[in-house]
Amino acid sequence: MKRAIRYLRFSQLGQSNGSIERQELYTDQYIQHHNIQLVDTFIDRGKSAKTFDRPDFIKLQIFIAKHYKSVDYLLVDQLDRFSRDAGEAMNMVKQFQKKYSIQIVSVTEGITFDYDTPGSFFRAGLQLLLAEEDNINRSIKVRGGLYTARAKEGRFLTREKPFGYRKVGEGKERHLEINEEEAKVVRILYDMFLRDVPLYKIKEKAYELGFDRKGNMAVDRVLANPVYAGLVRVEPFKDLPGGLFPAIHEAIIDKTSWQMVQGKMKKEDKVKVVVDDDIPLRGVLKCHCGVPLTGAPSRSKSGKYFYYYKCKHSKHNNISAIKAHEQFLNACDLMSISEMNIKGIRNNCYSTIELELKVNKKKAVEKKHELDEVQQKLNTVEEKWFKDEINKDTYDRWYPVYSGQILNLEAAIERLSANQGKVFEVLDTNLDMLSDMRYVYTKSDTLQKREFVNMVFNNNLYYENGIYRTPTMMDMLSHNASKMEEKGYLIYQKKRDTFSSIPQSGR
């Protein structure tokens, strides 16, 4: 009596288990009709035929390698259960016959694969090729449908929902809806990144606020994901272009901010910036040679630790952090603005903001006209492409140009049209704080202190011979510059060429 093993498979777990039952029925009938003894059955549920890397198929290969002398046939319902890759399948069944003397039988198709029989070999090859062609056609339809859904309909189809959103609706009505609690976290992450907060600090803050995605790159992926700007990334399909397309879901981040973050991520220095509350100026304050100062504690004979700012060049700066911090706070006292001047600043700010709002409104209208023109150009290119009036190279050359211009114009319109009422509120709430700059600095956390220094001195704060020096400083805070120098806190010299004590880094 001949002996056989059989292999059953269906590709999607969502399919009815009836697929396996049907395959069992047909192979059972074949076994009974041909008086064959069934040795074992191997079943892969929910596994694709594109690869042989399937759990039970691997077990089947191990079984054959051990027991091939006691097995004559490998039964399958149809050859496409075995594989949909014609080339790999032909090599595999050839190996079973040549190496193990086991023949593959497709019971429904009535084919016994025999490499030495031309007719059998041709029929088996034809069935496998037809199965592969069917798989290719199905794949094309699926990819075409996905392209249409994403590029034309603006639907987000990725299985995992992005942090900051929830999925609502069913079928084609399913879409992303903002989860406001999570969206607040996303906005904070983008804001911190644009304020040059070190990435490791952003990640710490994210998890402190309830960010629940795992992995070292989870925050990086949020910062890079166009979904937060109301866009969806689409892969090219046949002759249709890929890229970023407008989505139907609401954006959490405006397009301008998202684009700024992408630009910063490309230029981001890979050197990790470590923030220490005891030495907040580390990496922000520079030596007179131009090198950012490091900082570290030094242990005294009594066992107490004292912090110092140091230059990598041993003969340059080695500054007591206590002294440097007190000097800076004294300079902050002299940066404080009188109430009379604050009143004048408030009035000037109001006038400037109102004027800017009018200008922005006018610019927004102009940008909308530009957007209409570019959109029309893009529509013309697409129409000519569909009518075969231009070749693919011309289409590929102009499509990304116009689509990129559209994205930039939409971002500009969004920025220019934003409600600026918040500006007046922030101005009224915080402007009076300028009367006590020491308070502003001391009440800030370490990251805010670093941002304060970079903003006031435009990233140009140096230290030499026991005093701070800078060639750049906010005008409104420099009114007591002569007193700062007189008291030995800070020297402010506007012209770079007279500030000869700051040569290029490392010299």
Give an overview of the whole structure.
The protein has 16 helices and 16 strands. A 5-stranded mixed beta sheet has the order 2-1-3-4-5, sandwiched between helices. The protein has a 4-stranded mixed beta sheet with strand order 10-14-15-16. It is of the alpha/beta class and 507 residues long. Strand 14 and strand 15 form a beta hairpin. It has 4 domains: 3-139, Rossmann fold (3-Layer(aba) Sandwich); 165-267, Putative Large Serine Recombinase, Chain B, Domain 2 (Hect, E3 ligase catalytic domain fold, Alpha-Beta Complex), CATH 3.90.1750; 286-336 and 436-498, no CATH class; 339-430. The protein is elongated, with a radius of gyration of 35 Å.
Number of helices: 16
Q: Give the termini distance in whole angstroms.
A: 91 Å
Largest sheet strand order: 2-1-3-4-5
CATH superfamily of the largest domain: Resolvase, N-terminal catalytic domain
Helix content: 40-55%
In total, how many domains does the architecture comprise? 4
Largest sheet data = 5 strands, mixed
Radius of gyration: 35 Å
Flag low-confidence runs: 497-507
| Average pLDDT | 82
Which class do the helix and strand fractions yield? Answer: alpha/beta
CATH classification class of the largest domain: Alpha Beta
